[in-house]
Amino acid sequence: MKSELPKVAxxxxxxxxxxxxLDHLSEVGFDRIVLIVGYGRExxxxxxxxxxxxxxxxxxAEQKGTAHAFLCAEEALKDFHGSVVVTCGDMPMIRTSxxxxxxxxxxxEKNASTVLSAVLENPKGYGRxxxxxxxxxxxxxxxxxxxxxxxxxxxxxxxxYVFESPEIFSVLRSIDTNNKQNEYYLPDAIKILNERxxxxxxxxxxxxxxxxxxxxxxxxxxxxSIMNRRLAGV
Length: 234
Fold this sequence. Notes:
Blueprint: E1 11-12, E2 15-16, H1 17-28, E3 33-37, H2 41-48, E4 55-59, H3 66-71, E5 82-86, H4 96-109, E6 113-119, E7 128-131, E8 137-141, H5 148-151, E9 155-165, H6 167-172, H7 188-195, E10 200-204, H8 217-231
Parallel strand pairs: 3-4, 6-10
Antiparallel strand pairs: 1-2, 5-9, 6-9, 7-8
């Protein structure tokens, strides 16, 4: 991002990305929100200190991957039993209605996990959803670990899921770092759940733009253009 700010604090239409995400989550009506913080934690905590939601913090002192980040929230969720939505602080385009639809489908199907997916014209950089012969989600493969064949898949991982707590934490502890980034990947939880004969579902976004995040200032400009179009009702 060419900035010393943590990415989630980078402004989109004058407001930090994390605040756009929290606006949508607040409208869903969650009992609590756990923010996993690391680099620039003081900035992130300062951004949200005056919000009305029940916000807790979990520290990821070392950046060991997305599964490790979620595992850092185990203590904060030790007294919670039920469905947990995991989403990214740099994905400000997911609407409240989409979060609600994801949660409703997860509950209706009685899944151990439900993944929010999108079909993108240009899926470069995104994890791909690999389905089995039965059409069901078998695993998610990050692009860096994908074969040329898998890279042709256009159904992508939005980085947003529903899991069941506390069961998911035993899954997280089973994830290894056998990948090109030597990180604990949260998407690997899907393969493990399948191996444990747990039900895994997929919820499609009705608008693929919801799956867009920002890794550069050029990406931010794209998000701002989409947000302006939404505000104009176009």
